[in-house]
Design a protein that fits this description.
The structure is a homodimer of 273-residue chains. Chain A is of the alpha/beta class. Helix content of chain A is 26%, strand content 32%. Chain A has helices spanning 58-72, 88-93, 109-118, 138-144, 168-177, 195-206, 255-260, 266-271, and strands at 4-10, 13-27, 32-38, 42-47, 50-54, 78-83, 101-105, 131-134, 148-154, 178-187, 211-218, 226-233. In chain A, the strands form two sheets. Chain A has a seven-stranded mixed sheet, with helices on both faces. In chain A, strands 1-2-3-4-5 form a five-stranded antiparallel sheet. The longest helix of chain A has 15 residues, at 58-72. Chain A is globular and about 55 Å long. Chain A binds chain B through residues 4, 6, 10-18, 38-40, 57, 59-60, 190, 192-193, 216, 218, 220, 224-226, 250-254, 256-257, 259-261, 263-267, 269, and chain B through 4, 6, 10-18, 38-40, 57, 59-60, 190, 192-193, 216, 218, 220, 224-226, 250-254, 256-257, 259-261, 263-267, 269. Strand 2 of chain A pairs antiparallel with strand 2 (13-27) of chain B, so a sheet runs across the interface.
Amino acid sequence: MEVWFTENQTPSVRLGLKVKSILHQAMTPYQELMVAETDAYGRMLVLDGAVQTTVMDEFVYHEMITHVPLMIHPHPQRMGIIGGGDGGAVREALKHPSVEQVHLVEIDAEVVRQAKRYFPEISVELDNPRTQVHCTDGIEWVRQARDLDVLVVDSTDPVGPAVGLFQPEFYQSVADCLGEEGVMVAQSESPFLEPEVIQMVVQGMRTVFPVVRLYLAAIPTYPSGFWSFTLGSKGPLPGPADLSRAKFATRYWTPAIHEAAFALPQFVEDLIR
Amino acid sequence: MEVWFTENQTPSVRLGLKVKSILHQAMTPYQELMVAETDAYGRMLVLDGAVQTTVMDEFVYHEMITHVPLMIHPHPQRMGIIGGGDGGAVREALKHPSVEQVHLVEIDAEVVRQAKRYFPEISVELDNPRTQVHCTDGIEWVRQARDLDVLVVDSTDPVGPAVGLFQPEFYQSVADCLGEEGVMVAQSESPFLEPEVIQMVVQGMRTVFPVVRLYLAAIPTYPSGFWSFTLGSKGPLPGPADLSRAKFATRYWTPAIHEAAFALPQFVEDLIR
């Protein structure tokens, strides 16, 4: 007997993953949350029907959303992460010795709770003394935050609780909460399947940040397998990684990937011209 | 009413594409061939249940399997393509003015016939006087070929008619059919889902070619969306593209992508160490 989980990635594209067992399934105050064990990608977290993370491919997303801005900022000490309740971005951030404090701002406490229970390898640094977990609205939190060096928006898709994280007003709040050399990154969906989201994010950030750049990574369980991140910077520019700071173990990010990820296919260049 | 095509990409991963209509479905002497119209990716060619090409994303595969070796060879004039009966690689190759002759060696004449009928935008150069189509076995054809500058193996997966194209003996035949500065490229599957194929291809080519390099591209309708190509060279090394030769229109390949595609994620580096 076979059990399959199917994500309707768009109205006309589906990803099917064979499932060994469903470990948890519940409505939280914000969304439907499921934890299942898949054959191909190991344990998987699903929110409102969309795969958020799997044990086998989470390293790509978490390394790329974290190490890229942290290596671009000249000396990151204080960091905020909006969303990302599974803790994967926190785990990567704490690999940087300069980072003294990471604020994880996850609106849904249930995501943090189930991540600690079912994804110990991802949530491993949530109880680190350098980590502060705030289960509150990220938009509100950013409004009162100040002097952050790096802010990462590790959000769900721009539907449901995450809609406000894709608005220009939010990017202005982020700019205000960042210090002089501040850098932000937001996940910005697939260039093949949601080009209009990339355009919205890039245009929104351009109204606020003098430097806006897109970079890309391959994430098999996300729609189309090809994912974009949009970086907004008050000053620091993407460029070669300072190798003296790249002294941590990774599975996707490398100093060469750090630069190569900003090389955009022609059709993506055309999208954001 | 909805009709969905489903590819079992592995025993535990499926891609589903909503289908408007099935245009052609038949057994050829070699495989089952289907042409269908999809909502998300336009017209699609399927062989033995595996998506080969779609009108919306074929540009990635065809540009990357063709322009990379052609730009690495210092002056490519004679080229062979094994497989690739849809004509996409031929179309890209003929964008290079130095290329005088392209031999397309497709074992299954039905693929060429249906490509001409249903994929005019892909097969557009199959009747060009610089193109010679040979509907014959690629392994046999390579054995008697000589003095090619570039050989591209645009094959199906290493099952069915393509098995022999993944063997070391075949790579030796390719080396013998190439001139002194000859370069070959073979598609070599997904690093996420078929790492053992990459290892087999890289190890096989290393027994024959002094230079072997892997490069990557994002292809949404192929398993995991992330695809590898293995390049074997008798001498020329991957490096910056000669911009004076990059005077053709593309949608994925750019001079920056030409270099960035060789930057490998750490887990892929580890695979082929």
